[in-house]
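Title: Comparing notes on inverse folding

I've been comparing how different people in this forum approach sequence design from structure. To keep things fair, I'm posting one structure and asking everyone to reply with a full sequence. Here's the target:
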């Protein structure tokens, strides 16, 4: 850890970030390293009263921020990108020690954040609006973009930096203030470090704040009448509660939720590529990814070979200390997650599934697992596992496979492996999924392409590129008459 973050660490142990670090006697929460089980730091939590104060601060700050020039907003976001780049190792180190990310995953996430910040820095200078003709002579109709006001961002622990920044950066670019509620399992990586980042970026005080805490703090943010939008990434269960609260208040919400993503491997697939892709899609970050390949559907004619190769590869993965370059599988985030994965695998075996490899773990580690002889309705196949498990189902007919894929309540990402790309492109239209990748795996994110799910995987919109404008601003119709007119009443 460099000296600069050591100084900051002393601050987050005693302060909360409300645009400035504010000293508090509030409760603290220990930060535990999932690899070792050791307490490595602590963070001050926000109270419900702090949430209310933060909203007031955000409202005042936003009035000025929305009036700044596009150059000023772009400069802040560029500076944030540069500061992230200069301090990339700090972000990587915390992601490893607090969240169990491997060096590979933490490095990928950090670089994606930098790209995301640069992309958002181009948003303020984009044309925003159009002129329409009018049936009334001398009238001009214009629509223009206006900010929403205060945007509440609630994020998960699995990609704590990227999944926060992908909302914060475009929301700030569009002239909003942002209040971030990070996950309780990534308070430093997805919270305090972002406070540090935006403080150092030259963002005016109060336009970005962090309120760490348990679900009550998130609920207070969602229910505050002067928070104008909630951008939430997390589980479908919590997303439904947030949608309900927002609906009651007629508040805008954008939800990026859970997934149980299928990979269809057709009879003409390149098996080497399919297996390689399946390993990445299933085991990256121990499978704790919303887009994880959680359902493998393989054509019967190649199933034996696919299972054998996937098993060989799963057995060869290095499980251990995620800070070591050779490690491919780190720990799961916490005991509850580990318990859930163990229980789901044990239940599947109890119901007659075949354990090809893995199926057990030590401390918070869980070995890469391949499971066969299952049916489409078994929880191990039908539910989101969020662990390093590859359940494989064999199919004979592609229509049957598509029906199984579409039977899930989720609809986030699907991959199809085949030589017939034009056919797969057509097939994509029959599949209920927000993202479909042909001859690739399911874990894909490109910051400039609209990202999001169908069904219970998402609600409210898309992230990325052109979609960000509508997500984080609203359209306003302004009509201008040179001179007032008389109405016949
Ligand atoms: P979670 O839903 O438990 O928590 C997410 C956040 O919501 C946390 O900050 C938590 O403190 C907060 N929260 C919990 N209850 C709340 C409430 N009642 N009101 C307001 N806030 C509340 O999810 P998690 O365990 O952190 O993340 C894993 C889940 O996230 C998985 O289901 C995964 O698929 C999903 N996810 C989705 C995407 C996507 O882009 N679709 C990306 C990553 C993760």
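Reply #1:
Here's my take.
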């Amino acid at each position: 850890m460099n000296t600069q973050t050591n100084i900051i660490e002393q601050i987050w142990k005693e302060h909360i970030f409300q645009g400035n670090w504010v000293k508090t006697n509030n409760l603290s929460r220990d930060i535990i390293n999932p690899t070792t089980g050791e307490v490595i730091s602590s963070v001050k939590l926000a109270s419900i009263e702090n949430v209310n104060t933060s909203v007031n601060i955000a409202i005042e700050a936003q009035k000025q921020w929305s009036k700044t020039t596009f150059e000023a907003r772009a400069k802040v976001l560029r500076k944030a990108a540069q500061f992230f780049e200069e301090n990339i190792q700090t972000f990587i180190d915390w992601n490893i020690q607090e969240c169990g990310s491997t060096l590979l995953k933490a490095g990928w996430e950090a670089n994606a954040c930098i790209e995301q910040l640069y992309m958002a820095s181009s948003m303020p200078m984009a044309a925003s609006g159009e002129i329409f003709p009018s049936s009334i002579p001398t009238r001009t109709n214009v629509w223009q973009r206006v900010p929403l006001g205060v945007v509440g961002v609630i994020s998960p622990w699995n990609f704590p930096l990227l999944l926060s920044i992908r909302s914060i950066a475009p929301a700030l670019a569009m002239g909003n203030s942002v209040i971030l509620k990070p996950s309780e399992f990534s308070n430093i990586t997805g919270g305090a470090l972002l406070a540090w980042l935006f403080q150092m970026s030259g963002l005016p005080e109060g336009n970005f704040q962090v309120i760490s805490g348990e679900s009550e703090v998130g609920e207070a943010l969602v229910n505050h009448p002067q928070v104008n939008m909630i951008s939430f990434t997390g589980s479908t269960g919590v997303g439904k509660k947030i949608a309900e609260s927002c609906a009651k208040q007629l508040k805008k919400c954008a939800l990026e939720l859970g997934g149980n993503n299928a990979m269809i491997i057709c009879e003409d697939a390149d098996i080497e590529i399919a297996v390689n892709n399946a390993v990445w899609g299933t085991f990256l970050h121990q499978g704790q990814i919303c887009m994880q390949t959680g359902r493998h559907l393989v054509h019967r004619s190649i199933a034996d070979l696919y299972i054998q190769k996937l098993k060989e590869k799963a057995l060869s993965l290095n499980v251990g200390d995620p800070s070591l370059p050779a490690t491919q599988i780190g720990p799961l985030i916490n005991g509850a997650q580990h318990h859930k994965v163990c229980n789901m695998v044990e239940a599947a075996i109890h119901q007659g599934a075949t354990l090809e490899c893995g199926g057990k773990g030590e401390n918070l580690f869980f070995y890469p697992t391949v499971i066969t002889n299952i049916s489409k309705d078994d929880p191990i196949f039908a539910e989101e596992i969020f662990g390093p498990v590859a359940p494989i189902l064999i199919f004979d007919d592609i229509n049957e496979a598509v029906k199984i894929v579409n039977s899930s309540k989720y609809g986030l990402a699907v991959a199809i492996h085949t030589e017939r790309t034009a056919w797969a492109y057509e097939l994509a239209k029959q599949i209920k999924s927000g993202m479909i990748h042909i001859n690739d795996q399911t874990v894909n994110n490109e910051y400039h392409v609209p990202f999001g799910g169908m069904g219970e995987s998402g609600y409210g919109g898309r992230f990325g590129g052109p979609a960000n404008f509508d997500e984080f601003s609203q359209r306003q119709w302004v009509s201008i008459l040179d001179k007032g007119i008389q109405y016949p009443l």
